[in-house]
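Rather than argue in generalities, we reproduce a single protein record, letters for residues, whole numbers for local backbone shapes, just as it appears below:
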Amino acid sequence: MIKRLLLFWIIYIISNQCFSQDLPQISIIQNPVAKKADIFIGAELFTSLLYADSLKKPVLYPVNAPGNITVTRGWPLLPKNGDQVDHPHQIGVWFNYGDVNGADYWNNSTSIDTNKKAYGTIKLNRIVSTKNGNGKAQLVTSSTWYNPKRMAVLEEITTYTFSINDNDRIIDRKTALKAIEDILFKDNKEGLFAIRVARELEHPFAKAVKVYTPQGVIPLLDNEKLSGKYESSEGIMGEDVFATRSNWLKLSGKITGKPVSIAMIDHPKNIGYPGYWFARGYGLFANNPLGAEAFTNGKETLNFRLAKGKTVVFRHRLVISNELKNSRIEQLSNSFKTQ
């Protein structure tokens, strides 16, 4: 009997080890000189956390689906032929807001005149910790939100959890904001958690748009390679998802002929859950739980206040895959709710 139990435990341990070894290693490699941290799944780059002084907030860029398919727009950092050249502040994946104590943290970039409007900046102070592992890795950062006078107004601790589940690549972001002074997140449509996607995932256009080419910026109407289509958990499709609310939103399309899906999942513990979808056909894909007035034509208002010394936490999940069925997103949404 004892021998049988011992044999059972040996088989159990070996099988668990084999299972964990089946999951590729997710590694976080820091580069303080370049002010970035690369996240690899096996030997393939998943994404990078960039925090150079030229950026007005930390961003994840690029973001790659399985097969090294980049789902984020290249311009303005690494422009690709055909990229739209609008909204230079929309880079990769980011978290910020359009009105914090009167300062705009959303639209700030090196391409604007900061004398015309009060813009805030989010600076990463340090990478607190990293943890690598089979199928899962974690990155914790400390950042500060500065107002236009370079005074600190918010302390931010963000935990990124990078994981894989079958063919799905998952980014969970937990953002804790502590008020250094009394804070007003004034109702504003521009926020909060967002991604700017590749040209191929945009919706078709009726008019020409300005795009990057190696020869220069030109106006172009070319819908042939545009394949993006939104679908919400409430069954709303296409650009009609703008200003609606739901648990999750999916964007599907093809890049270089290969299927790609991105799902953004809200969390029930977030203020204003479920948030409004600030999702546009030109490639902006964002969840905003703090904006209401602009999305309801003034019928509702949400001016969120955070007293000095208090902390608010936001949770968001981003899933990048080749194909995502709605039933699969529901599973990922339900598992996220328990966190």
Notes: The first strand starts at residue 25 and ends at 31. The first helix runs from residue 2 to 22. The mean pLDDT is 93.
